[in-house]
Write a structure and sequence with these properties.
It is a single chain. The protein is of the alpha/beta class and about 350 residues long. It folds into 2 domains: about 1-145 and about 325-340, Rossmann fold (3-Layer(aba) Sandwich); about 160-315, Glycogen Phosphorylase B (Rossmann fold, 3-Layer(aba) Sandwich). Helix content is about 35%, strand content about 15%. The protein contains 12 helices and 13 strands. It has helices spanning about 10-25, 50-55, 75-85, 120-130, 170-175, 190-200, 220-230, 240-245, 260-265, 300-310, 325, 330-340; strands at about 1-5, 30-35, 45, 60-65, 90, 115, 135-140, 160-165, 205-210, 235, 250-255, 270-275, 290-295. Strands 3-2-1-4-5-6-7 form a 7-stranded parallel sheet, with helices on both faces. Strands 10-9-8-11-12-13 form a 6-stranded parallel sheet, sandwiched between helices. Strand 11 (about 250-255), helix 9 (about 260-265) and strand 12 (about 270-275) form a beta-alpha-beta unit. The longest helix has 16 residues, at about 10-25. It starts with a strand and ends with a helix. It comes from Dethiosulfovibrio salsuginis. This is UDP-N-acetylglucosamine 2-epimerase (Non-hydrolysing).
Length: about 350
Amino acid sequence: MNFLFVGGDVGSARALQPVAEELRSRGHRICAVDQGFWHTTGYGDMDLSTAVDMAKKGLFDGCAMGTSVKDTDPLALARACRSGDVPVFCMLESWVNYRRRLEIDGKGLFLPDIYGVVDYDAREDALSEGIPEGIIKVVGHPGFAGLVPSSPLPRDDDGRMTVVFASEPVEMDQGTDRSSPGYRGYTEKTVFPLFCRALQPYCGDVKVMVAPHPREDRCALISMWDQHRGGLLGEVIRPGEGRELAFSSSAVAGMASILLYECWLMGIPALSLQPGMVRKDLAYITRPEGIFFSATEQGVPKSVGLWVDEAAKGRGPIRPELERHRSASSLCSDIIQSMRG
């Protein structure tokens, strides 16, 4: 069989890549609309216009699409598949914007044949946003199946632990006030200074590595770090290095990045700072027991202190929730294979 894959952003591509590999191991042909997100060699790199043309002609047995809150290309391809009677499996690897991702092109709500979500909380959230029950399947997160914690980095010569702050381009994606659709109630420019300020009493205990999001302006982040670091040691690392560094860190902090959840699964202390949060869906990161959290500016210092104390104790055990994701690639592959009937 011949399957087409398209990722909406780096996160969705990371979730779909193990599924593509599983299907290929079963003898199927995989074509990917690259978009810069696919790192595994051996897929037929295909430009969007060619993929759309082939999809309209029904030349694929199925399409696996990731989603995005910005890029409309996956939706364009999914609509082309629908016109060519090619079934579409959509994987939502996060816990936010279930409906928005399927209508950001302004052409109305696109409903895939199967909408894969990571857990039963996500299923309930998707239902509450009007996604039909019949197309929702709880499949886990294929990208989490291979999570293995790296050995923790040793403390530096002065005894400092390495901690990671996972930044996000919140201002660019969700705006600075309620006039912007999806406004969170905060941006990286309000959260990061609070984080640095709350860490000042722990300058002798931690070294901060700031991890830019792949779409984030690293130079602007360096400027913000220089302005607010105070007595903290550390640096802004290059985009693409944050995930692996977080897995070998003593603790990770951020806003609502899925990286916090990944680290929590592996027993790495995680901290979510979302002061002024106005979107209830962003509270998904606080659902797991053991993730430190603050929704107010006043609560940030206490949450940061508890997080640093927990990091000093060392990592906890791998969470049992990780097991639900181990079979995700196989389950998604079974679904995609069976969509043709």
